[in-house]
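pasting for ref. prot 1 ->
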Amino acid sequence: VATELFIGQGYESTSLRQIADRLGITKAALYYHFQSKEQIFSALLEPASPVMAGLIERMVAADGLEEWAEALDWVLVQMLEHIDLFKLTLRNRQAMAEFQSAIEHSGKNEKIRAAIRDKAADVPQQIRMIAALGAITAFDDWAPDLFTDEPEVVVAELRAATRDILGLPKKRRPRPARQPVEAQGRSEDRR
């Protein structure tokens, strides 16, 4: 309920009373579980922590540009799976700015910078790795409506763009197995 309200009307415009009313409980009952609107917002952002940790883990473990691309692909899938979380952060940028400073101070950004320095063979490769990461992480700043309107298209295009930035060949999707011509004829004969 709080997610719907924060997405629909924004964090600043949503009151604890509105959340309690939509839940069909008293404001006092809501206070029993959450002492503030900030605590509710923080709880709603909690799924972002394992996603961020998973991305960092994959980037640190990545061996080469292909595995870096796989780490970025993994986070794209996570964005699709947690689309409401993504919408929540897009709709509530001011509130997110306050929470973002806590994230930056937790050392996560330094871990990513260190992974890039350690994994890249040279400065051009570092630049490509940073640019590929930036293509995904900054996308919500430049085209948030595209992601919420057509997430599958955006993920497919970002996947292709990150591979281009990294200088990797396009990944081909496996085609369904085709029956040999002889087998096709025999199956038609049985009909």
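and prot 2 ->
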Amino acid sequence: LRRRARRDKLVSARLSLLLTACCPFPFISPCEQSIGRLSFVMLYAIRFLNMFLPLLYLGLMALNVAWFVYQDQRARQYKKWLIPTTLILHFVELVLRGLYNGYFPIATVFEAASVLAFCLMLVYYMVEHLQKVQTTGPFFMIIVFLLQLFSSAFVEFSGDISPLLSSGMFIMHTSAAMLSYATIFAASLYA
């Protein structure tokens, strides 16, 4: 049993060292290994989605440009299912981040940028789906991609926050405010 425990500890240390050396930022740190298994899985999912979301938005931007410039029907079909998928994944990332940290994820400018990107994407999806206006996609996607890239590049996963951020009324207020900012931006884009 001792040999097996020592071997498992050695394998875990080597895996941690390998992931730290291969990635631009470490996925597994010694303090994160001490947290519970569910928290570790949540943190890993948050970090994965945080890296994957800018790529999804970049792909959506390319599809929207292809549809806008060339009227490519394949791009239209791909973006028809990729937009809701991206919205769902972004919502899951925001919910996981909120559950992991214990507060609504707008404590920093970078978290707020991610929430604003989600709200802009939601407004765009509703306009495209309800009004059948598909020509403004590239303009929305550039802003959403840059906001999410900014957020993903600089977001921190820990820090001291105000207890106000865990209040239910504050969460409702800021959610409505972010959605209204996104709607005002969309209205100015269509004007």
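The CA atoms of residues 61 and 142 lie 7 Å apart.
DSSP finds seven helices and no strands in the chain.
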